[in-house]
Amino acid sequence: MEDRLEEKCGIFGVYGQELEAARLVHTGLWALQHRGQESSGIVSADGEGLYVHKGMGLVAHVYNEETLLGLRGFAAIGHNRYSTFGGGGYEHIQPVVREDRLLAMAHNGNLPTIDRLESFLQKRGISTRFCNDSELMRKAVNFYLVKGWSLEGAIGKAFPLFTGVFSCLFLTADKMVAVRDKRGVRPLSVGRLDGGWVVSSETCAIDAVGAKVEGDVGPGEMVIFDKNGERRVWVVRGRETVDVFEFVYFARPDSVIMGKSVNEVRKNLGRKLADEIKVDADIVVPIPDSSIPAALGFSQRSGIPFEIGLIKNRYIHRTFIRPAQNLRESDVKRKLNPLVSVIKGKKVALVDDSIVRGTTSKQIVQMVREAGALAVHLLIPAPPVKYPDFYGIDTPRQDQLIAATKTLAEIRKYVGADSLHYLSLAGLIRAVGLPKRNLCTSCFTGKYPVNIGKRKAEVCGASQRRAV
For 419, phi and psi rounded to 5 degrees? Predict the structure, then answer.
């Protein structure tokens, strides 16, 4: 696993596009590749049945012209996965669909506790062995579906069993439904295209297929797409508490979340950090790519020139793919290469979006020093990550989070920087420009807006609260 918080998953759905639905989903998944790089899958529907293709690897590797031709129909849902609950492997590739091909589901998020789901299914003689949270959710909805409930009715009946965080797409032969948990921790947006609809984890993918963004699936809301058009139903009235890490790191900068441009928010993060701290530096250098907007903002506010001092090799896979530590370290060096002509003889303000374990930060600081930097000041335009996530981000155990086990001075010494500065939580909230009550900041504060159940025993110093 790489020394950073890994993405969750990306989901994309299309309804009402005769013969082109799967191709549009394929394009959408390309745009959402950053959210999951382990596996990908598409399920399509033509009014008579469901058609499936899945595979391990990137979107470019999983599909070809032949597979897309086999995914016929006017509706389709797709999923890019980075495994969290239940681990990886072919058997867990989404969308989840079984042999009867009655129902498919794509899930972005995580259920920290599945006791209620397992109990419900086991009491009805439905096996839960080797099932992850997404597969259990599909089985619960499928139970009501085979009992004769409509798709939206089945989802509404199963909804109380989903004790966690979820943005989901469900697909039958003739209907697609999008649904979101009552806190809306994971984003989910809706767009219009030529009389049909698209649903996506991020607006950048809606843009990529030429659709127009309409808005979001609300927290606790279902959006139903069928031959009668689009209908919206509130399963429960919720309050949006979107994961602030979407703004800090996960989302693409060309996405919009809750009306806020991710790119502008990241620039604001850098500006707020410049307001809070002063560094004696000659240049501001981002660690590409997600830190570039924040570094620009810091440069604009501080007056310190912005420079591209690290070049990213875009053809190196993310380092979490390699399990051995020595290979991870080798990948970091192959992934980034310093521009000696930019760095040598300069005092460098090095900007990164977060520090998790600290091992990658240590290597990059050393790399910049070896390129001839006179000093390296490490700037993080977010607060320290002190708590694990239970909502779909793949975080280490708390005892592996460097900010949970070391002081600021100890972290600075470990990574080898001349100084280390984090943005305050208040500065983060001001940079996003949304009320604090509408942001999930659990990785920084230990306050979990959706009950994490038994998992709270894994957290030290957290303030666990129930959703209201």
Answer: -150, 160
Q: What is the pTM of this model?
A: 0.92
DSSP state of 452: -
* Contacts of range 260-265, beta carbons closer than 8 Å, 24 or more positions apart: 260/432, 260/433, 260/434, 263/293, 264/293, 265/431, 265/432, 265/433
Q: Band of the pLDDT at 443, cuts 50, 70, 90? A: very high
- Using alpha carbons only, give the angle 121, 122, 126 rounded to the nearest 5 degrees: 65
Return the CATH class of domain 260-435. alpha beta
Chain centroid to Cα 435, Å, comes to 21
- CATH, range 9-240: 3.60.20.10
How far apart are the C-alpha atoms of 333 and 355, rounded to whole Å?
17
- Give the three-state DSSP class for 190: strand
- pLDDT tens across 2-36, in order? 565 655 699 999 999 877 899 999 999 999 999 99
Cα–Cα distance, 356 to 351 (Å, whole number): 14
Residue carrying the six token digits 């509404």: 156
Q: Is 9 one of the catalytic residues?
A: yes
Q: Of the candidates 427, 461, 460, 425, which has an alpha carbon nearest to the alpha carbon of residue 444?
A: 425
Q: Is the dihedral of CA 318, 324, 329, 334 positive or negative?
A: negative
Q: Which is catalytic among the residues 9, 131, 168, 443?
A: 9
Read off φ and ψ for residue 377, nearest 5 degrees: -105, 115
The domain limits of the chain are 9-240, 260-435
Give the strand pairing for 283-286 and 347-351. Answer: parallel
- Which residues lie closer than 8 Å to 216 by C-beta, 6 or more apart? 184, 187, 188, 189, 190, 258
**Mean pLDDT of all residues belonging to the chain:** 92
